[in-house]
Amino acid sequence: MHKVVEIRNLSPSTYVLRLERNGFTFQPGQCVNLGVKGSGVNREYSTYSGINELYLEFLIKEVKGGTVSTTLRKVEPGSEVELHGPYGSFVIEPQKIETSRFVFIGTGTGIAPFHSFVRSYPKLDYQIINGIRDTSEQHDHQDYDSSRLTCCVSRENWKGFNGRVTDYLKQIEIPLDKVYYLCGNQGMIYDAYDILRNAGVSGDQIFTEAFF
Q1: For labeling, which of 15, 42, 94, 144 is most exposed (least CB within 10 Å)?
Q2: Mapped to the 3 state alphabet, what secondary structure does 136-190 carry?
Q3: How many other CB atoms are found less than 10 A from the CB of residue 22?
């Protein structure tokens, strides 16, 4: 069991759940099963915090009618939640952390594992392409180097790129020597994967994690 430290609301639909760490170890990019104590219902969430931080954080989108995401948002600080894991292989191989260049492509809360990567590995050579519906979904963007972050906004006109992540990928030159991590909705992952492969990126340089 882990106690809730804080619930930080980022937008009407999204929040960060902060828990006591209690010695829990994980690799950035891995996920856990989370649920309210005694409910018997858990959901999978990617770690959002870095490996050297004193707490655990998870970036959660509240799903209307959802059992876990709506209930977790209402849990009082000091209450216990169930946590099982970690699970998954959406991680960076240790030998590549300082030798490879990365492109992280994520939609919505699919940016969560990339936040963990950046918080954990200060020397990481990365670019993030974040697909969001509107500017209210620029969650914790101050935690990234602004020169390494591109936002693709699909439902609001703004000063940056207007359109989907896949629209952006079709308009740029795709570097063939970088390692690509795709995280978010399945449709984006399928389309982005095809765009990268058609551009000549090797399949063993593309890693995927579908959130929904």
Answers
A1: 94
A2: HHCCCHHHCCHHHEEEEECCCCCCCEECCHHHHHHHCCCCCCCEEEEEECHHHHH
A3: 11
> What is the value of pTM for the model shown?
0.96
pLDDT digits over 154-177, tens only?
998 999 999 999 999 999 999 999
Q: Where does the chain hold its CATH 2.40.30.10 domain(s)?
A: 2-87
Q: Which amino acid is at 189?
A: I
Instruction: For residue 86, say if its preceding peptide bond is cis, omega within 30 degrees of 0.
Output: yes
Query: What pLDDT shows up at residue 212?
Result: 64
Indicate where the chain has its CATH 3.40.50.80 domain(s): 94-210
Q: Could you tell me how many residues make up the chain?
A: 212
39 pLDDT more than 90: no
Give the architecture-level CATH label for domain 2-87: Beta Barrel (2.40)
Q: Which residue do the tokens 């292989």 mark? A: 89
CATH architecture group of domain 94-210: 3-Layer(aba) Sandwich (3.40)
The rounded distance, in Å, linking the Cα atoms of 210 and 89 is 12
